[in-house]
Structures are given as structure tokens and as C-alpha cells.
Amino acid sequence: MQLDRRHFIGAGAALTLTALLPRGAFAAFSPKPADWRRFALTTKIDIPADGKPVQAWIPVPSVNEEGWMRAEAPAFSGNADSAELKTDAESGAKYVHAVWSSGQAQAELEITAEVETRDRFVDLGEPGQGASLSDEERALYTAPTRLIPTDGIVKATSDMITENMSGDLQKARAIYEWVVESTERNPETRGCGIGDVASMLEMGDLTGKCADLNALYVGLARAAGLPARDVYGLRVAPSKFGYKSLGASSENVSKAQHCRAEVFLEDYGWVAVDPADVRKVMLEEPPKNLDLDDPKVRAVRAGLFGSWEGNWVGYNFAHDVALPGSERDSVGFLMYPQAEIDGVEQDELDPSSFAYEITVREEGA
Is the Cα torsion angle 269, 141, 347, 202 positive or negative in sign? Predict the structure, then answer.
């Protein structure tokens, strides 16, 4: 895929069209803060240890953001020799680290976490809602990571998209529109993808899933000097707006992982962004393979810059997480349970062979 200003021009045209549409034109997808919803998440680990030593690192909800998510401390039990709630020093991501020494036939652990969520929405026509970032936070959320550099081709692409633009809102929206226009969801991508932003741009292959496409947004935004972050989490309920692709389909959410993104704008604070879900709707909503002009796509394209639905739980904002005791240096992001048997990494994208299950129950529903 050629990376030139034609993609940006198309994004700008879509932006202009969106701005001219009357308020309420996208009533089919319009998340707004209302009542809080409470969910209980249960993660069960049952690894066939066969007498070998086992370690597991299980992410738990650790995002607490005023207005859209409140996470409580998890409870956990099992037959591990040790199990401890850990916090990643840089990102604040929380996870349970469990260790089983040699001898057990099965490594068993059950973690329950209570979370409250609700829809979020920022009225981008009403500036002055924002909060400030500390120097440390701004440095963290504009810094490169191992898979998301902010120089080279990432910087060049970001500069091309935001050329002659002023103001962080204009730049942030242009990057969003460019990602929507320039990428495609690849159903063959395992899990949620890898998020190797520079490789995507260098190869001209802007396909993948949420951890690829939303990481691309984050990288381009950071390269433009805008604080941005991935939010790694899990879909926990169907979409109340009728989009089957934007919600969980059952109580078993072992494969319902989804990462979103945010960008910090001076007049608004943290703003929800999810171009990957626009592409998911295009690919998966009936009759499938929708184009950008389809009303369903136009609705979510407008809504997913500034809002998202509270049928999803955020785990963390973490990148490059060092897992204590692991044979690996770090993991690019922590959205799936991780485990090693006798030092051998297990496939976190295959819950049945890894032997974990995540279920959800909405309380009061």
C-alpha cells in the first residue's frame, strides 16, 4: 500500500462530511454516560503441569478512570506455592504472579475481579473539559516503545498526515481518519495482532487487528507530539446499539480481548479513539464487507472518535512489561494470561491448550 497524501485527502474529505452531518444523524451508535454497570470477571487456570515447575502471570483490571471505569482489588485462590498481586512500576498494570514448584499434576488458580463501567463521551464541540498531564505522564505517553517507535517512517508518516495543521484536535482527528481510511482488518491475524508499527509501515501492509491498528494510531499520534496510549482489555457484554461485532457473544469471554486507544487533548483531557473497531464493523457486520459510505460504518466512524461503549473492561496501558521470573525479557503488551511450563512459554492465544477460561457475569442484570 502506497503511503502518500491521497490517503490523507480521503480522510480529510470524510472529516469534512462528518462535521457537516447534523447532530443525531448517528443515533444508531451514540454512547453517552448513564448508569454504571457492574461485572464480575472470573479467570480459571488449570494447566497440566505433569510434575514440572509452572509460572503464570494473569492480568487483572487495573484501570481506574473517573467517569468510565472503577476496578476493585481481585481475590484469588488455588494450589500455587505462591501467588501475589504485582504492579508494573512504569505503567501501573496489575497482574497475579503464581508459582508452582515441581510435583503438582495440575497448576490451578482462580481469580475473581469486580469492575464497574459505563459509556463515555467527550463533546468535542465544547472545549474546556480537559485536565492537565504531569511532565512525567506526558513523557511516558509520548515515548517510543519497542514495537511503537516515534522516529523514522512513523514520524515521516505522521508529518505527512498532519502537514500544515495546527491544534491538537485537528491533528488527532486527521490521524484517526487516516488510519480508518488506510488500514484493513485481517481476519487471519492471530489474536489481536502484534502491534509492530514500524514494520507495518515499512512493508506497506496496514492490515491486522486491534493491537495493530490502534497501536498504529498511538504511534502516529505520539510522533506528532500528542500524548496517546493503548488500553488493553476485554469485551464483556453485547453492544446495546445492535452491532454484534462490537460486543461479547456469551459469558465465556476467553477470546474476547480487545484493545482501544486514547489521545490527550489540552481542551478535553483523554479522548476515546478506536479506528480498529470501525474496520471490524466494515468486515463483520451483515451483509459483511461494508464500504465506508455504509450508514452502519459512518455511525461508528463518527462515534469512535470521542466515545465508546461501556460493555468493555480495561486491564492496563502497559507496554514492554518485564514478567518477574520469566525466561523472556518482556512482553510487548499484557492483555492475555501468560504461562511457562519448565521455562517453556505457552501459547496465550489458545486458551484450550494453555488451559485457561475467562467468564463474566453482569451483576444486577
Answer: positive
